[in-house]
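Comment thread on ticket #2218

A.B. wrote:
> Attaching the input chain for the structure job we discussed in standup.
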Amino acid sequence: MTKINLQVIDPNTTYIDEDAEIGKGTTIYPNTTILGKTVIGANCEIGPNSVIQDSKIGNKCVIFYSVIKNSHIGDRSDVGPFAHLRDKANVGKNTHIGNFVEIIRSKIEDNSKIGHVSYIGDTTVGSNVNIGAGTIVANYNGQVKNKTYIEDGVFIGANTVLVAPVKVNQGAKTGAGAVVLEDVPKNTLVVGIPAIEKKKLP
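C.D. wrote:
> Ran it. Output below, let me know if you need it in another format.
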């Protein structure tokens, strides 16, 4: 474990496995557990009340009140509070994963935001995507887990349900409360239950 310029606020409530690597300038806040072969970059803020296991965290990241297992977080990204990333979640750089967000077996590209109370499973999310509060990827049909693709520059409205397998193409938008059963064309707004095309976007 790298110890140079590492600050552990309360060693009595902090556990760090001997196999973990932590970069200089990183601060570990109370009630934090770092397990397995975790690698944490430089100048991060980890905790309080966080668990990180067998994961890689980039430089200048903030992990707050969250659980991260077998996952990767890119540089300058922030996670939490109360987020759960697991089973090869892969989050890019400059990305925001907010409160009560669960991500599993999914890739989130750079500069995207998933702010509030969402489930993203078996999904590829492009760059510069905004996923609104309450968004759910319905990836399980009772037999298999299906894939969802959200391309660059997409805006997902609050309380959208994406019923996999489905693809939201570049620059598209979904209205609040939309239930998306079919692929959304590029630069198109869809609304309703089930979602239908409302208009083309510039």
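A.B. wrote:
> Thanks. Noting for the ticket: The CA atoms of residues 18 and 167 lie 43 Å apart.
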